[in-house]
Amino acid sequence: MIFPHTGSADAVLDPTDTRRGGRVYDELVGHGVAGVPGREVFEALWPGVYDQVGAQFLVRVPGSGRVAGYASLHGFNFQARHGCCSLAADEAVLGPRGATDAHALTVNYAFSMWNLRKLYLWTLEEDPSALRRTGVEVRLEGSLPEYVLVGGTLRTARVFAVYRDAWERTGTGFVDGRVGRADPA
């Protein structure tokens, strides 16, 4: 069984109201978060008007409660058993362990709450390093060249996926270790 953890020593997922696209960016800027992609990225890759949102979280620094990012689980297709994850976190505020924990907690939450076969992560990053640091296999499922206009330049969007079976083998142990339920991976 995958337990829906929402906090570790380095990151906390704090449930919040549903925000879509640019409103996520506006909220993060309002909290003083600087190390996240620009508004155009949120408008292109984050949930839109017609996406079903399952859960959204402010990513906070434990202890201080400072907002350092935002996570969204949305775009579900329950017949195909997949969903989407969007996560933006300021690693300069959270630190590498906090950014990794935020990704791990979000993916873990999705697999614990819904009967998903895989979870997609749409990003402009060439490699989702914070998620890879969990040790779980992260697959590049596709690339969309010139998909997002950022500051007048067309950028490639990449679609990565984490499969439930890989998460159950590696990710759950990582999360349990980070929240103190087992030895860290």
Automatic annotation (TrEMBL):
Gene3D superfamilies: 3.40.630.30. It comes from the Bacteria. InterPro entries: Acyl_CoA_acyltransferase. SUPFAM superfamilies: Acyl-CoA N-acyltransferases (Nat). This is N-acetyltransferase. It comes from Nocardiopsis dassonvillei (strain ATCC 23218 / DSM 43111 / CIP 107115 / JCM 7437 / KCTC 9190 / NBRC 14626 / NCTC 10488 / NRRL B-5397 / IMRU 509) (Actinomadura dassonvillei). The lineage of its organism: Bacteria, Bacillati, Actinomycetota, Actinomycetes, Streptosporangiales.
